[in-house]
């Protein structure tokens, strides 16, 4: 074997090892990000489940209605001999309204939990897409470095720029979905 083949063999072994290490690191980073999504999903589910069913204003429904009135002919209204009535009434049909509020809130919680699950799934898929784009960009950059024709290299660089834009859009979409999970939790807790 000549020196050239040995050198080529050593270089390819080194780059293959680096690539394997990079892929292992990439898989660890992906796993860390997905674990973060799982934690956020779990916390969101707990927040939604622990959200109250009733609000303070709902208890005002059970306060009695008070009425004060005087009974007298019009010309004798101001005299002290007229009768004054004071009444209080309680409406028990408010209990049915409270049951409706509880059913509505329970339904809202179920929908919110399902929405959180869906958003978390979308985030996980966007994370996969993001790292797929990062891998494609890395490969394209290696190809561009090896191309001698400047026109073809410029075309490849343009494709790299397009992939960078898609990667940034994935980052933005991931952040939007995280914010949507937070808004959903706040809405249910309200």
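Q: What amino acid sequence fits the structure above?
A:
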């Amino acid at each position: 074997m000549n020196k050239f083949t040995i050198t080529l063999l050593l270089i390819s072994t080194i780059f293959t090892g680096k690539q394997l290490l990079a892929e292992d690191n990439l898989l660890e980073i992906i796993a860390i990000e997905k674990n973060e999504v799982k934690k956020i999903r779990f916390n969101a589910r707990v927040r939604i489940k622990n959200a109250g069913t009733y609000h303070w204003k709902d208890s005002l429904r059970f306060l009695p209605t008070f009425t004060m009135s005087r009974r007298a002919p019009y010309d004798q209204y101001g005299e002290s001999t007229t009768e004054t009535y004071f009444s209080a009434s309680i409406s028990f049909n408010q209990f049915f309204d409270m049951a409706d509020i509880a059913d509505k809130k329970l339904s809202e919680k179920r929908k919110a939990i399902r929405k959180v699950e869906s958003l978390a799934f979308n985030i996980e898929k966007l994370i996969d897409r993001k790292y797929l784009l990062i891998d494609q960009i890395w490969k394209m950059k290696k190809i561009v470095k090896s191309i001698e024709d400047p026109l073809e290299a410029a075309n490849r660089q343009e494709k790299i720029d397009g992939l960078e834009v898609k990667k940034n859009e994935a980052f933005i979409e991931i952040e939007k979905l995280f914010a949507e999970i937070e808004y959903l939790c706040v809405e249910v807790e309200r």
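Q: And what stands out in the fold?
A: The longest helix spans residues 94-146.
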